[in-house]
TrEMBL record:
GO molecular function, one term: RNA binding
GO cellular component terms, semicolon-separated: cytosol
Broadest EC class assigned to this enzyme: transferase
Species this chain originates from: Sedimenticola thiotaurini
PROSITE patterns, A to Z: SAM_MT_RSMB_NOP (PS51686)
Record-given protein name: 16S rRNA (cytosine(967)-C(5))-methyltransferase
Lineage: Bacteria, Pseudomonadati, Pseudomonadota, Gammaproteobacteria, Chromatiales
Subcellular location: Cytoplasm
Active site (record annotation): 378
Length: 439
């Protein structure tokens, strides 16, 4: 739909417009928030599938498109490039009848006023159909084409996970399950499972976490029984490990120093009657923390601040527990956010590592002697994880690791890591640090 029009848009046209903006650095979730309003409700699932699917497979689709084009599409023609990738995506990964996929994609070019590209897209997609097996075999011949992964990330994963990088990349391209956290302060996992079953939503317990359920089929969160009343939240099983690792006790002072959108803050408050300060740099995201806590019926001191430069009332206190769920590459959650492959650049990693180190060093003095700090990321990269915590331990004489003895994930030199897809979880890293001295 063109801007300002009130007619519902053609799903392929809208998807091409969104994919062009995605290539220019916007995130899928931001884009879909507004973009989905441009199509009829019945087409929303399709536009989502187009955007997520093309983002997931983009490096592979681009490799194939590159072989079929005699010269690259000009950067200013981002919608045409997006339609080519979308056409290939439908032909390779969707159950749309091939002739319909080609005809509808060509029609979208026409609707976008790209008449010059109509013949090109038609010929390219038809040639793909004729040469499909050979083109797919060539794309599969190297890991970048096979797993649709940018070169810099492939290099890092091979280095950090020499035995697991292929299964990690396979899992990163899979569709994630919808995982739930039952509010154990209000009900039990068994009782909530029974409510889901009665509502016709099949689910099963997630291993290693006491409140986790995995739905067989995703649904809108609002459709979950008791969602508005805070009986349940949507949260990956790996993320649900954090609250347990903090070993919370009633009455403790707890700081969640990178709290937004508040998933782990909510779980902390469901787990024990603690006094929580939920802090984040991003004011807009902090609103979501408050909304999440309101829905759960729990309270915290929600404050805006920079955990790399503690200042103000929250920084003048000391805490029994600190959760440091630092900003990271998010390479452990690519299956949920495939646009990460496109949005992250190799140069982002050293910058993130620097920020994480600053936050860790700045927040450490706020921990009481005898207190615990849980360092967490949804990254798979050792520089952000065991490398980061290892460097900190080497220069903080009052810090020692409290080893995580667990039956989930993999032991690292410091801390533990879940890998995407294992035990239904996303890829999370956790390291627990204790401050020496008497409480
Ligand atoms: C991985 S997310 C936290 C997710 C959250 N713990 C949850 O479970 O919902 C990282 C958060 O760190 C915040 N952040 C980034 N730099 C920060 C800083 N210097 N101080 C405080 N928060 C920061 C980001 O705004 C982002 O919300």
């Amino acid at each position: 739909m063109s801007a300002g029009s009130t007619q519902p848009g053609n799903p392929r046209v809208v998807a091409a417009q969104l994919l062009r903006q995605l290539a220019a650095g916007r995130s899928i979730s931001d884009l879909l928030e507004r973009g989905l309003n441009e199509v009829a409700p019945r087409d929303r699932g399709l536009v989502k599938e187009f955007c997520f699917g093309v983002a997931r497979w983009r490096p592979r689709l681009e490799k194939i498109a590159g072989e079929l084009l005699s010269k690259p599409i000009k950067p200013k023609e981002g919608e045409v490039q997006a339609l080519i990738l979308l056409g290939l995506y439908q032909l390779i990964y969707m159950r749309v009848a091939p002739h319909a996929a080609v005809a509808e994609t060509v029609e979208a070019a026409r609707l976008l006023g790209k008449n010059w590209a109509v013949g090109l897209i038609n010929a390219l997609l038809r040639r793909f159909q004729r040469e499909r097996d050979a083109l797919l075999a060539r794309a599969d011949a190297d890991p970048q084409g096979r797993y649709a992964v940018p070169g810099w990330l492939l290099k890092r994963l091979r280095n950090d996970w020499p035995r697991d990088w292929e299964s990690i990349l396979q899992a990163a391209n899979s569709h994630p399950p919808m995982s739930l956290r039952v509010n154990l302060a209000r009900t039990s996992r068994e009782q909530y499972l029974a409510q889901l079953t009665a509502a016709g939503m099949a689910a099963s317990p997630i291993p290693h976490v006491s409140a986790g359920l995995q739905l067989e089929q995703p649904v809108d969160a609002e459709a979950l029984p008791g969602f508005a009343e805070g009986l349940v939240s949507v949260q990956d099983g790996g993320a649900q490990l954090a609250a347990g690792l903090l070993d919370l006790r009633d009455g403790q002072q707890v700081l969640d120093a990178c709290a937004a959108p508040g998933g782990k803050s909510g779980h902390i408050l469901e787990s024990a009657a603690v006094e929580l300060t939920a802090m984040d740099l991003d004011r807009r995201r902090l609103k979501r923390v408050q909304q999440n806590l309101d829905r759960l019926g729990v309270t915290a001191t929600v404050v805006q601040g920079d955990s790399a430069k503690p200042q103000g009332a929250w920084a003048e206190r000391q805490y029994d527990r600190i959760l440091l769920d630092v900003p990271c590459s998010a390479t452990g959650v690519i299956r949920r956010h495939p646009d990460i492959k496109l949005l992250r650049r190799a140069a982002d990693i050293p910058a993130l590592v620097k920020t994480q180190g600053q936050i860790l060093r700045a927040v450490w003095p706020l921990l009481k002697p005898g207190g615990r700090l849980l360092y967490a990321t949804c990254s798979l990269l050792s520089d952000e994880n065991e490398g980061q915590v290892g460097r900190f331990l080497a220069q903080a004489p009052d810090a020692r690791e409290r080893a995580l003895e667990a039956d989930w994930g993999r032991t690292r030199k410091v801390g533990r890591q879940t890998l995407p897809g294992e035990a239904t979880m996303d890829g999370f890293y956790y390291a627990c640090l204790e401050k020496t001295g008497q409480p």
